[in-house]
Specification:
The protein has 15 helices and 14 strands. It has 393 residues and is an alpha/beta fold. It binds magnesium ion. Magnesium ion binds next to loops. Its cofactor is Mg(2+).
């Protein structure tokens, strides 16, 4: 016998139509964030870059006719910030009058507006700031944290600290930083390697491992400064440290070299932060080049692109540890099926009014809708150029 259950339709959900909205205003801001101490990784020690003293941010704020707002950002370290801002100024007008919900279509529209400068790098990094703002707006309008809008697998993500272990920092200070980091509730420690003297790296790592003990997750990052034979030798020497991963052992575009190294080591190999599009990450995945991929949403064109890559990465059972910009990546990592890592940097904190909750080794998705961040007065004070398009409602 078939039993039928009758329910009364909920009229509020069966009547009426979804309201369409349109973008009426944008504000682009170029913000120069000064760093307290000049920062050096292996790229400085090999003479390829100067110590970093500031980070350039491109913020995009978007408002709709109905008064919904979103804020997103992209960034550049060392050169490139003014170029991202200039490209954003040229393409911003294309969003006026558009429905902010159609994010994929709008991303494509912005790419075609600047098609002659390509689908990777600086051009799509400028688009990323618009894309992130559109996702923030969509989640805010839904009244949901972005992770929930995307579909979260967890409400917190394992986090590790990078900023305490740079190469310019004396070892004693690195040990003090590690103690402070773990005391603040962060779960893992990453140490920069790739010093021209490999023995220096190994001695420093020995000191850190002894200091934090065998059970604390520990990673190293060579910032692309080893050649293939050096990466092989160092990789073998590093096996005994039981590392979570070895990051950027080789040039970011050496997919075949990474694949050979990853196949020969027990320690997982991580890379991908320097790649500037999903297509470049596809090359890594095709070569089985990494156990852990480290995409950076602002660098590959925004959240829309990151989600395409995350789907592909899951299909290949890859681990995920997004690079930098924890304010965005916490949400994206929370929505990745395989337990990921988020990189903790406190550098961006002065730009926002809100702080992320961190304890027991994990970073927590807040209950605030969208990304959950508003721009601080300090971010306004560090704004060096600004452009508005349209009229704020
Ligand atoms: Mg790195």
């Amino acid at each position: 016998m078939v039993t039928t259950t009758h329910t009364t339709p909920h009229t509020a959900h069966t009547e009426g139509e979804a309201t369409l909205d349109r973008i009426v205003w944008l504000r682009l801001s170029s913000v120069a964030l000064p760093l307290a101490t000049p920062i050096s990784d292996a790229k400085v020690f090999t003479g390829r870059q100067k110590p970093m003293t500031e980070v350039a941010f491109l913020f995009v704020e978007i408002a709709t006719e109905q008064g919904h707002e979103g804020v997103g950002f992209s960034y550049s370290k060392r050169a490139g910030g003014p170029g991202q801002f200039a490209h954003a100024k040229e393409i911003a007008e294309n969003l006026i009058g558009e429905d902010p919900s159609d994010i994929g279509r709008l991303w494509t529209k912005l790419v075609w507006a600047g098609a002659s400068v390509g689908r990777s790098g600086l051009a799509t990094q400028a688009i990323a700031a618009f894309d992130v703002a559109l996702w923030d707006l969509k989640a805010k309008r839904a009244g949901l944290p972005l992770a929930k809008l995307l579909g979260a697998y967890r409400d917190s993500v394992r986090c590790y600290n990078t900023s305490g272990g740079f190469l310019h920092t004396p070892t004693e200070q690195v040990l003090e930083n590690a103690t402070a980091t773990l005391g603040s509730g962060i779960g893992g420690i990453k140490i920069k390697v790739g010093h021209p003297d490999g023995k220096y790296d190994l001695a420093r790592l020995t000191a850190v491992r002894e200091h934090i003990g065998d059970d604390v997750p520990l990673m190293v990052d060579a910032n692309q400064q080893w050649d293939r034979p050096t990466a092989q030798r160092m990789g073998r020497a590093l096996e005994e440290f039981n590392l979570v991963w070895i990051e950027e052992p080789l040039d970011a575009y050496d997919a075949a070299g990474h694949a050979a190294l990853a196949a020969s080591l027990d320690t997982p190999v991580a890379t991908g932060e320097m790649l500037a599009s999903v297509a470049e990450h596809v090359e890594l995945i095709r070569h089985n080049a990494a156990d852990v991929i480290q995409p950076d949403a602002p660098r590959i064109g925004g959240i829309t692109q990151f989600l395409k890559l995350a789907a592909l990465a899951e299909h290949h059972q890859l681990q995920l540890a997004p690079h930098f910009a924890m304010e965005i990546h916490l949400h994206l990592a929370a929505a990745y099926p395989i337990e990921p890592w988020v990189e903790h940097f406190d550098w961006l904190e002065p730009l926002f009014n809100e702080r992320l909750e961190i304890h027991d080794g994990r970073m927590y998705v807040s209950s605030r809708p969208g990304l959950g961040f508003t721009l601080s007065d300090q971010a306004r004070a560090w704004t060096i150029a600004e452009q508005e398009v349209g009229t704020r409602p």
